[in-house]
Amino acid sequence: MPGTVGRVPTPPAPVSGAPSGTGAAARVLGHPWAATELGPLPTWDPAVRAATDLVLASPVPMALTLGDELLLLYNDAYAELIGDKHPAALGRPAAEVFGEVWSMPGVGDVIEHAYRTGEPFLEKEATLPIHRRADVAEQSVFTRGSCAVRDSAGRVVGVLTVAAEITQVTRQLQSLGDFAAALAGTLTLDDVARVALRYALTVFDADRVSFAVDEGGGGWRMVRRVRGELMDEADERLPPLWRRGPADWPAPAVEAARRGGASYVDDGEPLRGIAVDRHDQKVRALAAVPLRAAAVRGGITVGHHDPHSWSAADRALLAASAELIGQAAERARRFETQHGTAQLLQRSMLPEHLPDLPRLRIAARYDPGVDGNAAGGDFYDAFQLPTGELGIVLGDVAGHDVQAAARMGQVRAALRALALNDPRPDQVLAGLDRLVTSLGAEGATHELFVTVVFGVIDADRSQVTLASAGHPAPLVRRCAPDGQARATYVDVPAGAPLGLGSRPVTRTVPFHPGDTLLLFSDGVVERRQQGLDRGLATLAEAVAGAHSGDPRALCAAATAAVPGATEDDVAVLAVEHALRPSRSASMEVPAEPTAPSRVRHWLTGQLTEWQVPETVVGAAVLCTSELTTNALLHAGTAARVEIDLSPERLLVSVADSGTRGTVTRARTDTLSSRGRGLGLIEDLTDAWGTDPTVRGSTVWFEILLPAG
Asked: I want to staple 464 with a disulfide (CB 3.0 to 4.6 A). Which of 106, 133, 511, 557 is the partner?
């Protein structure tokens, strides 16, 4: 059994070698040990005093638990670990100091076992709840060891515990795993950049981080984030703001990528030559690490406003992070290449421009299903017939591959040819049935599944004639005399899909001024674990509840009507029979800095000439300026602004010829804070959306006009 602390009668004297400073060491020397079972400190056994000297002089967290009560004695480093418990913990039993924590497995029992048996203990990774502040427990990770302290006679009189906190290292390793999981879910370089910047800013407690990749044509693009930058949920969903630079760009991330080696600055002005604002100028410590990737060149930087010594652990973590980012960037580059090819194939088979008619307004939208990386078989078309009527069609060829897209192109071209010869819907679909049967026989397949609905709109007679081959019935939105809109499905027999001996039947229904006809694919209404009837009812409610019957707004409302993800393609085509002809105008916007101000001047003059209310003019000009700047900044190409004014609403669209296919925000001279533009458009307009086109994207908004 261990004994009490041995005492050797010696004259009072300070503990040999003990520091004479302040803090825990000074408190140990001044503690009233005489009131404890240990007795006055000068009378302690020399071996115990030597152990005390070692503890107090060590920069490593160390503690002694002495005597049968395991009274606690520790140094300054250990005092920092226990936080608010110091200095009251000195000289008290460890079980009282640590309370419930002491009784947890692997805590107090380890010390008590070492005291009873004299056996040492080592644990390389221990997770313990540490109360650095009162009533607040933090889960911290330690490497700790305990060994018996013996007096001059060899008796165990206490236990020495050495603890090295590795919480930060452990958290970094855990975060690296979370980072890898987050990168695994990225598809595009925008996604990779967003995840990488968020991770680097948090894990390295940085003030500025950046990510750069090569453009493939000799140039580079780079994006950064700074601590405290305003980022809301919408920003996180939108593409980051990339800066583009030449092949010899001196940015540290680019230089690290070109050189293939990392660089570290502990204290200096590493961004002095390329600083664009005060955030860059304030950086004093910077690490620049190249991505570890074969097909993509790039780099990341992590910066601090204060001097920072880049430890071996920091460098290892940066290297591991750069390797993960490089792998994700390669996957994203491959995806974007395949995605762009598939989308270009898909959209090249769809009409680039729809007819511009005085009394019939037309809009369409196509969204790829699955992962967006494959061409699909949904298609739409609208064209004028020799009789002056309008032919409209929407169909679906089963499949999500190049073959499905090719068949879709054949069916669409054949339908237009048949309609130009004989526009009767039942005859057009009967001819298509023979074509699909022939294609199936030619390919020796019975899996060629095609559904289609075709209609002819006669604006003079205010009617539409429709026929369907296995396709969902179209939806008509009508405005009653009381002003309440209602949406009903046209009672047209679906019949059998093409290629199965389809015998289409036509239906002619009224199509009065103010009505809007909506054709859609089944991807709009079908969802897993949900009945088709429910999806159809939800779509009808959304269309009836739309602000207006404007085709573009109804296309947006229809694609978002049924909640939940769909694996199918989504295609919609809407045609409005206008109450009165609308007025239209357009402007080609060159890709130059003065373009947004020219657009504002032109739009203000045009809307004023049309006697649009001033409140609508102001909102429209501000929103158009935002979207124009965005198109020029991100697409980097010329844009086209189109306005369409009807008695009910003002519609403005901005189309670019880039390849992003998504809406982003930009800094404008009136909106200096990024991230406010989209909120502005949502606040000032009644509806807005973004539509992918064959060679870019179109962003539009609608503002309803006051009555009278």
From this structure: 511
Displacement of CA 111 from its chain's centroid (Å): 49
Distance of CA 548 to the CA centre of its chain: 32
Over range 27-33, report the average pLDDT. Answer: 90
- Using an 8 Å Cβ cutoff, are 327 and 189 in contact? no
Would the pLDDT of 191 be above 50?
Answer: yes
Q: Which residues pair with 651 in a beta bridge?
A: 644, 702
Can you give the pLDDT at residue 137?
54
282-286, 516-520, 636-640: segment of lowest average pLDDT? 636-640
Give the Å distances, CA to CA, from 91 to 4, 88, 309: 15, 8, 38
Give the Cβ contact number of residue 579 at 10 Å.
16
Q: For residues 211 and 190, is the Cβ–Cβ distance under 8 A?
A: no
- Tokens 């013996």 sit at which residue? 150
DSSP state of 101: G
Which is higher by pLDDT, 210 or 175?
Answer: 210
Q: Is the C-alpha dihedral spanning 369, 372, 378, 383 positive or negative? A: positive
pTM: 0.53
Nearest to 350 by CA among 326, 382, 308, 374: 382
Give dist(CA 325, CA 300) in Å, integer: 9
Q: In terms of Cα–Cα distance, which of 137, 155, 165 is closest to 7?
A: 155
Q: What is the CA radius of gyration of the chain?
A: 37
Helix, strand, coil proportions of the chain in percent (round to 5)?
A: 35, 25, 40
CA distance 291 to 326: 5
Q: Please give the angle made by the CA atoms of 362, 588 and 383, to the nearest 5 degrees.
A: 25
d(CA 321, CA 332): 16
Structure-block tokens of residue 245 = 């630079």
Question: Tell me: the pLDDT tens digits for 243-281?
Answer: 888 999 999 999 999 999 999 999 999 998 888 888 899
How many whole angstroms separate alpha carbon 96 and alpha carbon 549? 75
Asked if residue 425 has pLDDT above 80, the reply is yes
